Amino acid sequence: MTTSKKRLRDYANIIRSKNAGPYRLTFDILFRDEANFRAVCKSEAITRDSIARLYGVPPDQITSLFVIPTGRAIKVTMRRQIGEGDFGDSDIYGCQQHAPLLDLPIPGGEA
Amino acid sequence: MASITVLTPTGTLGYGFGAEALDGGMRLKPDVIAVDAGSTDPGPHYLGSGEPLVSRFSMKKELSDLIRVGRRARIPLVVGSAGGSGCRRHVDWTVDIVREIAREQGLRFKLGWIYADVNPARVKAAIAQSEVRDFEAGFALTEEIIDETVALVAQMGHEPIAAALDQGADVIIGGRACDDAAIAAFPIARGADPGLSMHMGKILECGAFSAEPFGMDVMVGIVSDDHFLLEPGSSNRRASVTSVAAHTLYEREDPLLQAGPGHSMDLSQCQFEQVSERRVKVSGSRFIKSDEYWVKLEGVRLAGYRSVSIAGIRCPTMIARIDEILRDVQDEATRYFASNQFEIGFHVYGRDGVMGKLEPQRTITSHELGLVIDVVAANQELAHAVAHHVSGNLLHYHFPGQFNTSGNVAFPYSPSEIDVGPNFRFSAYHLMKLQSPLELFPMHFEEL
Questions:
Q1: Which residue of B has its CA nearest to A71?
Q2: What's the burial of B168, exposed, middle or buried (CB within 10 Å: 0-12/13-18/19+)?
Q3: Are B204 and B35 within 8 A, CB to CB?
Q4: Contact B360/A100, CB-based, under 8 Å?
Q5: What does the buried/exposed string (b/e) look like for B230-258 if buried means 16 or more CB atoms within 10 Å of the residue's CB?
Q6: Helical ranges in B138-278 per DSSP H
Q7: Which 325-344 residues of chain B touch chain A by CB within 8 A?
Q8: Nearest C-alpha neighbor of B375 from the set B417, B428, B407
Q9: CB-CB neighbors (< 8 A) of B425 in chain A
Q10: Could you read off the pLDDT of A13-45 as tens digits, one per residue?
Q11: DSSP A52-84
Q12: What is this structure's pTM?
């Protein structure tokens, strides 16, 4: 058996970011099936600290993290570092901030 | 209670929907057509400037289709957050288009419209009474901020729209409204369960974004005593448990508990069930009435005037020094103009143009960079002057090891600076307590 490093994109079929109002950025991760959802939950790869580290923000900027079994989803929300449309904002809709999540390593992942 | 069917033609009126999808949706015999036309998502500009979010062409084309099918079926049409921000100018603009359509199509009906603008004095009084609180802005709303605020609206709940429906309006153009409330108003006014209606509104408000494949297109919801059903208008789409559950997460922070004016929604006990190939059944959505009635305010201030310059960089020696060069030209401009009446920023595509400080990849791997020089100043003339000064200095900047001495940046346009006009920023995103759900939202009627 070969083991290769697996990333979040190998488990989830939707990984997206979007404004939740002008001052919040929310990330939705939806999983293909129950097994993939459980594997990522079990890995504990997605926590307030890990998301804060990934985006280089202090952990207190993460305002919530929900694990939603009925939707096979994980939802993380952070404060926008620049309010929507404020000077320096580079993504009015907040819809292109998801990319680093695609390659988030998932420890214990099997091929 | 008999079931009530709501047709939502698209996620944002003016962004389009399919003719086949509208026909398919109308075959389900809806009792109302309800659609959202705005959001804070496109940014503060539309509320500040009063410019509509979509073109007059798009709005007229889509309203024409909806008014035609709505009148033929003798069902009302409800539009929420008209024009993009739902401010008075946006409502008036939309009402004018409706009048024109009625005239051209020879239609007679009762038109209703509802404003959502808030008098600054009303907010100041509420601040004095401690009846304003921060929602997520991270700052307190003060009298000074209200004085700077050039446009201010509140998100109405379902009640003003329900009241206009009770008065027999056939077409209702609503100012700023909660997306879900604009769509839930009709079923709630006709006695449907408010929890199911509101949850259905939350899903329908984005049109067929809750279907697969998703798109700006027609979605239909049917609310009954203890559940609601969802089905897309187009036979090329289906509603699936995954697509609907996913949508319940979209554009909001808390997927399980959501506050609205005068209520909160508990979605923690919801069940999603695939009842047929293209239909999903949702149950368990709970409406919890609040003792107090708070609405969300949205305000914007004029921050200045913007000029931008777009430029490309292909030279590897320039790319290698980009950070220090940009810092230098920015500092030089600040000295040159000896003023703090402007802000200079850079979006560097190929480095971190999309994510800025959130970008984890700090090394440049691209062979070219796209640069947007962004200047906001106290007036347009100064913004233009600063942008031109910065782009000119960048063009002729000298640095050690330079091979190309004829110019550092490639401008795609002449003029190389573009005056964007007034720059608005959100100044209020706060909650305010009302005496009654109808208090801020005057309605008007006209027999066409």
A1: B245
A2: exposed
A3: no
A4: yes
A5: bbbbbeebbbbbbbbbbbbbbbbbbbbeb
A6: 143-148, 158-166, 179-189, 194-204, 241-249
A7: 343
A8: B417
A9: 83, 85-87
A10: 999 999 999 999 999 999 989 999 999 999 999
A11: HHHHT--GGGEEEEEEEGGGTEEEEEEE-SS-T
A12: 0.93
The whole-angstrom separation of Cα B276 and Cα B281 is: 9
**Partners of A68 in the β-ladder:** A73
Q: Tell me the mean pLDDT in the region B53-59.
A: 97
> What ipTM goes with this model?
0.93
Give the tokens for residue B357: 């400080």
Task: Compute CA B378 distance to the chain's CA centroid, rounded to the nearest angstrom.
Answer: 27
**Strand A6-7 vs strand A12-19: parallel, antiparallel, or unpaired?**
unpaired
Cβ B288 vs Cβ B263: under 8 Å: yes
pLDDT of A1 over the 60 cut: no
Which residues sit opposite A66 in a β-bridge?
Answer: A75
Judge: B256–A14 Cβ closer than 8 Å, yes or no: no
Segment B37-58 mean pLDDT: 96
Determine the Cα–Cα distance for residues B365 and B359; give it in Å rounded to an integer. Answer: 14
What six digits make up the tokens of B436? 């009654």
Contacts of B27 (CB under 8 A, 6+ apart): none
| Residue B331 phi, psi dihedral angles, 5° rounding | -60, -40
Give how far B164 is from chain A: nearest CA, Å.
28
Residue A1 Cα, gap to closest chain B Cα (Å): 32
What local confidence, expressed as pLDDT, does residue B237 receive? Answer: 97
Using an 8 Å Cβ cutoff, are B6 and B221 in contact? yes
* Secondary structure of residue B30 in the 3-state scheme: coil
DSSP B307-361: EEEEEEE--HHHHHTHHHHHHHHHHHHHHHHT-SSEEEEEEEETTTTTTGGG---
Instruction: Say if residues B383 and B430 touch (Cβ distance below 8 Å).
Output: no
Distance (Å, whole) CA B25 – CA B231: 8
Residue at token pair 């739902």: B86
CA-closest candidate to residue B223, choices B21, B3, B1? B3
Q: Which of B311, B407, B315, B310 is nearest to B366 (CA)?
A: B315
- Say whether the peptide bond before residue B400 is cis (omega within 30 degrees of 0): no
- Rg over alpha carbons for chain B, rounded to the nearest Å, is 25
Token pair for B347 = 């979006």
DSSP per-residue letters across B210-235: GSBS--S--EEEEE-SS-EEEEESST
Please, what is the angle between helix B194-204 and helix B179-189, to 10°? 140
* Chain A interface, Cβ < 8 Å to B: 14, 18-24, 26, 28, 30, 54-57, 63-64, 66, 68, 70-73, 75, 77, 79, 81-88, 90-93, 96-97, 99-100
